[in-house]
Amino acid sequence: MLTQVFYILFFYFTGEFISYFIDGFIPGSVIGMVLLFLALAFKWVKPEKVQRISTLLTQNMGLFFLPAGVGLMNALGVISEYWAVILTASVVSTILVIASVALVQQKLEKRK
User: Is this structure's pTM higher than 0.85?
Assistant: First the structure.
């Protein structure tokens, strides 16, 4: 289990290191996740090496949303002031994402 934690933390800190040099343009955790994905895709890291820890983390994912919920509660004044703008942006972006995914899927289906 300690080896699995090492792999996860290695890619996380590598991503943070890279993010530091690009002035945080892309968060380090995202870069680390992409690096871990690439390592798994190119079979540099075997999935068995991170399976137990990744299963444990995903089973307890709800705990990771607690800080975001607390942050929302702290920003309740701003949210209540700009709720219409936030709602509009959320609805429009959701529709755009659904439409773009549908278009890409249709184009990929035509290629087959």
Answer: no
